[in-house]
C-alpha cells in the first residue's frame, strides 16, 4: 500500500519534472529539473528492488553528468532564443509525429502480450541468494563479459575522438624565459609620449603608432 | 579454444588498433603513411583469421560465426582496405593527415565485425555504437572546414536519434520476449500464435533504426549533406564498409530472430525499397555536385538490395549479397575517381569540372565511364547482374510491382549516370587535375577491371554468396 503510494508520488514528480525540462524558459532551470527527474527515477529503482542501479544513477548522473551539464549551460553563451527559432514552423509536423507515436504507445499498452516463456523471467528478476551488487557483477563479468569489454573499447574511441577533434599541436607550453626577459631594453618595450592636455588616448596611439591599453 | 578462435578477429583488430595508436602518440615524427600501410596489413590478417574461425557461437551466443558472417566480414574488410588506400594522397593534399585516421577506421571496422556477427540485441547495439562513434569523428576529420564540421554534427544528431529509435524498439522486443538473444527471440515469436502489437511495433522501430543507418528512404535525409561535407576519403569509406555491414545485419535480424513475423514486416520492407529506388533516381537528377550525386545513387542502390530482403527467400538473400559485393567494388572505383579530382591540391567536386576529361586523360575517363555504366546497370557490366539477381528473386516471390518499379527507376537513374559520361566525352574544357597516387590508380584500375570482367567469371561470387545465403537460413532454423 505504502509502496504503491510512493510509486505514484515519485512517478508523478518524475513526469512533471521531465516535462519541465523541455518547457522551462531558463536553461539552468531545465538542468535542475533534469536532476530532480534523475533523483525520482532513482527512487523508482529503489522501489523496484534495484538499489545498486539507484545509487549509480545518483552518483553518476546527478553527481557527475548533471553537474557537468550545469557548468556547460552556465559557461557557454548559447542563445536559446535563437535555437527556438522555427519552432512555430515545425510544430505541426512535430505534433503529428508525436501524436502517431503516442497512438503506437497506446496500442502497445492496450494490447500488451508477453511471450509464453517470458513470464518466468519477469517473476524472478533477482537470484535469491545474492545481493544486488553481486548479482550484477556476476552477470557483467561472466555472462556479458564480451559486451563489457566492447563498451570499454567504445570509451576509448570516444576519448580518441575528443582528442582528434579538439587537440591543437602547440610546440611546448609557454614557459617563462628569464634570460630574454633580462635582455629586454627599455626602448624595446616602452614608448615615451608627451601628451597634449585635453587630447584623448586615441590620438596618442595613432601618433605613436602603437596600441595603448 | 573455439572461443579464442571465434573472437580472434575482433581481438586482433582491437590490439592492432591500440598498438598503432600508442605508436602514433609516442613517435617523434609523423608516421601516418606507415600506420595506414600497417592498418591495411592488419585488415588482411583479420581476413585470414575470419576464415580460420570455426562455425558456431561463443559468449552465450553473443557472437556468431557462419558462412554468412564470413562473407559480410570480407566485404567490410575489402571496403575498409580500399578506402584506406584511397585516403593517403587525398588526406595529404587537404592537410588532414593525422595518424588517428587509420586507427579510427580500424576501430569502426571492429564495430562492423561485431555487428555482422551479433547474436544478441546487446552486441548488436554496442557494435553499432562502436561503428557510429568512429564514423562521427571521421566525418568531422577536416575540423577546420566548416562544412565537414556541419556534416559531422548533422550525422551525430541524426545518428543519436536513430540509435534512440533502435533502442526503443529493442526494449519493446525485450519486453515481449524477455530475452535479448536472437535464438530465444525467434523461439518466443514463433511459439506465440497471435500477433502481438507490442512486438510488431518493436520490430518496426528496430527496422527504422537500421534503415536510417543504411540511408534507405524515407530515412535518407542526412546522406547528401554528410556525403558532401565530409572529406572525400571519408565519404568513400561511408559509402562502402558501414553500408555493407549494416545491410548484412539487417538481413540477419529480419530473417533470423524476426523471421516468424515475416508477414508483418514484408510490406514495410517493400515500401522502403520502393521509396529508396524512387528517391535515389529522382533526387540525383538535379545535382551538380558529384558527391551529392553519389549519395542519391547509394540511396537507390540500397533500395535495389532491399528488394532481395523483401523477397525473404534464399534467392533473395543471395541476390542482395551479390548486389552488395558488386556495389562495393563499383563504389570504391567511383570514389577513387572522385578523390582524384583536384586542382593544385584543392579538391573539386562539380560534375562540370570533368568536362574534356576524355581528351586529357583517356584512361581515367574510360574507367569512370565503365563504372557509371555499371552503376546504371547496363549489360554486360557487373552492375547489370547485381540488378538481375534481385529482380529475379523479387519476381519469384511474387513482388512483381516492386520489380517493375525497380526497372523503371533504373531507366531514370541511367540518365544522370550517362550525363557524367556525356560531360567527360562531349563537353569542352580543361580539367587539369593533379597527378594521382599509386593507391588511387590501383583502386580505380582493379575495380574497373572487376566490373568489366565479372561477366566472364561470375561463378566464384555467385557460389560463395549462395553458401552465405544458405548459412543464414540454416542458422535461422532451430
Question: How would you sum up this structure, described in words?
Answer:
The complex is a heterodimer of chains A (213) and B (478). Chain A is mainly alpha-helical. Chain A has a domain at 1-78: Up-down Bundle (Four Helix Bundle (Hemerythrin (Met), subunit A)). Chain A is 72% helix and 0% strand. In chain A, helix 1 runs antiparallel to helix 2. The model of chain A has no long low-confidence stretch (mean pLDDT 83). Chain B is mainly α. Chain B has one domain (2-476). Chain B has 20 helices and four strands. Chain B has a two-stranded antiparallel sheet with strand order 1-2. A two-stranded antiparallel ribbon of chain B has the order 3-4. Chain B starts with a helix and ends with a helix. Chain A binds chain B through residues 104, 107-108, 110-122, 143-147, 150-151, 153-154, 156-158, 160-161, 163-165, and chain B through 7, 14, 18, 21, 58-60, 62-63, 98, 100, 103-104, 107, 110, 114, 120, 122-123, 126-127, 129-130, 133-134, 136-137, 140-141, 143, 172, 175-179, 184, 187-189, 191-192, 194, 196-199, 201. Chain A: Keywords: Cell membrane, Membrane, NAD, Oxidoreductase, Quinone, Transmembrane, Transmembrane helix. Chain A: It is found in: Cell membrane.
Amino acid at each position: 500500500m505504502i509502496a504503491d503510494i510512493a510509486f505514484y508520488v515519485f512517478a508523478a514528480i518524475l513526469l512533471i519534472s521531465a516535462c519541465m525540462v523541455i518547457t522551462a524558459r531558463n536553461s539552468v532551470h531545465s538542468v535542475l529539473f533534469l536532476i530532480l527527474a534523475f533523483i525520482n527515477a532513482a527512487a523508482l529503482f529503489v522501489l523496484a528492488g534495484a538499489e545498486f542501479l539507484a545509487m549509480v544513477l545518483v552518483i553518476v548522473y546527478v553527481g557527475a553528468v548533471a553537474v557537468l551539464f550545469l557548468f556547460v549551460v552556465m559557461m557557454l553563451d548559447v542563445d536559446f532564443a535563437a535555437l527556438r527559432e522555427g519552432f512555430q514552423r515545425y510544430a505541426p509536423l512535430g505534433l503529428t509525429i508525436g501524436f502517431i507515436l503516442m497512438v503506437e504507445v497506446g496500442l502497445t499498452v492496450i494490447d500488451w502480450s508477453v511471450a509464453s516463456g517470458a513470464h518466468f523471467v519477469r517473476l524472478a528478476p533477482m537470484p535469491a541468494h545474492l545481493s544486488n551488487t553481486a548479482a550484477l557483477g556476476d552477470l557483467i563479468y561472466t555472462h556479458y563479459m564480451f559486451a563489457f569489454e566492447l563498451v570499454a573499447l567504445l570509451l576509448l574511441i570516444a576519448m580518441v575522438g575528443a582528442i582528434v577533434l579538439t587537440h591543437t599541436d602547440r610546440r611546448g607550453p609557454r614557459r617563462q624565459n628569464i634570460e630574454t626577459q633580462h635582455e629586454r631594453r627599455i626602448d624595446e618595450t616602452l614608448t615615451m609620449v608627451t601628451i597634449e592636455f585635453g587630447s584623448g588616448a586615441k590620438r596618442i596611439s595613432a601618433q605613436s603608432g602603437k596600441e595603448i591599453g | 579454444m573455439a572461443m579464442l578462435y571465434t573472437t580472434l578477429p575482433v581481438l586482433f583488430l582491437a590490439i592492432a588498433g591500440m598498438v598503432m595508436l600508442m605508436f602514433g602518440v609516442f613517435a617523434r615524427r609523423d608516421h601516418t603513411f606507415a600506420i595506414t600501410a600497417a592498418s591495411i596489413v592488419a585488415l588482411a590478417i583479420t581476413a585470414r583469421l575470419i576464415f580460420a574461425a570455426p562455425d558456431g557461437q561463443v559468449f552465450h551466443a553473443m557472437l556468431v560465426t557462419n558462412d554468412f558472417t564470413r562473407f559480410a566480414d570480407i566485404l567490410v574488410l575489402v571496403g575498409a582496405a580500399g578506402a584506406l588506400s584511397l585516403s593517403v594522397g587525398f588526406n595529404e593534399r587537404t592537410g588532414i593527415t593525422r595518424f588517428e585516421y587509420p586507427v579510427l577506421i580500424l576501430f569502426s571496422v571492429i564495430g562492423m565485425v561485431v555487428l555482422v556477427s551479433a547474436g544478441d540485441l546487446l552486441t548488436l547495439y554496442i557494435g553499432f555504437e562502436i561503428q557510429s562513434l568512429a564514423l562521427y569523428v571521421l566525418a568531422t576529420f577536416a575540423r577546420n572546414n566548416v562544412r565537414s564540421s556541419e556534416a559531422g554534427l548533422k550525422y551525430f544528431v541524426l545518428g543519436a536519434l536513430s540509435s534512440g529509435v533502435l533502442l526503443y524498439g529493442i526494449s519493446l522486443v525485450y519486453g515481449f520476449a524477455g530475452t535479448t538473444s536472437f535464438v530465444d527471440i525467434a523461439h518466443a515469436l514463433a511459439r506465440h500464435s497471435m500477433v502481438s502489437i507490442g512486438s510488431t511495433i518493436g520490430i518496426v522501430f528496430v527496422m527504422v533504426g537500421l534503415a536510417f543507418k543504411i540511408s534507405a528512404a524515407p530515412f535518407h535525409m542526412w546522406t547528401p549533406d554528410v556525403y558532401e561535407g565530409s572529406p572525400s576519403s571519408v565519404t568513400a569509406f561511408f559509402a562502402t564498409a558501414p553500408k555493407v555491414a549494416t545491410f548484412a545485419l539487417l538481413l540477419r535480424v529480419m530473417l533470423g530472430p524476426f523471421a516468424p513475423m515475416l508477414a508483418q514486416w514484408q510490406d514495410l520492407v517493400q515500401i522502403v525499397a520502393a521509396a529508396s529506388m524512387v528517391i535515389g533516381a529522382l533526387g540525383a537528377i538535379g545535382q551538380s555536385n558529384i558527391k551529392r550525386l553519389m549519395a542519391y545513387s547509394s540511396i537507390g542502390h540500397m533500395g535495389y538490395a532491399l528488394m532481395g530482403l523483401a523477397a525473404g527467400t534464399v534467392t533473395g538473400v543471395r541476390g542482395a549479397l551479390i548486389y552488395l559485393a558488386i556495389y562495393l567494388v563499383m563504389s570504391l572505383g567511383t570514389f577513387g575517381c572522385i578523390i582524384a579530382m583536384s586542382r593544385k591540391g584543392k579538391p573539386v567536386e562539380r560534375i562540370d569540372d570533368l568536362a574534356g576529361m576524355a581528351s586529357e586523360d583517356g584512361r581515367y575517363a574510360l574507367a569512370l565511364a565503365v563504372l557509371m555504366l555499371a552503376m546504371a546497370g547496363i549489360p554486360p557490366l557487373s552492375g547489370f547482374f547485381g540488378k538481375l539477381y534481385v529482380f529475379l528473386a523479387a519476381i519469384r516471390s511474387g513482388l512483381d510491382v516492386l520489380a517493375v518499379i525497380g526497372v523503371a527507376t533504373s531507366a531514370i537513374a541511367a540518365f544522370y549516370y550517362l550525363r557524367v559520361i556525356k560531360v567527360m566525352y562531349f563537353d569542352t574544357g580543361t580539367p587539369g587535375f593533379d597527378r594521382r597516387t599509386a593507391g588511387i590508380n590501383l583502386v580505380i584500375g582493379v575495380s574497373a577491371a572487376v566490373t568489366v570482367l565479372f561477366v566472364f567469371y561470375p561463378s566464384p561470387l555467385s557460389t560463395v554468396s549462395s553458401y552465405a545465403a544458405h548459412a543464414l537460413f540454416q542458422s535461422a532454423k532451430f
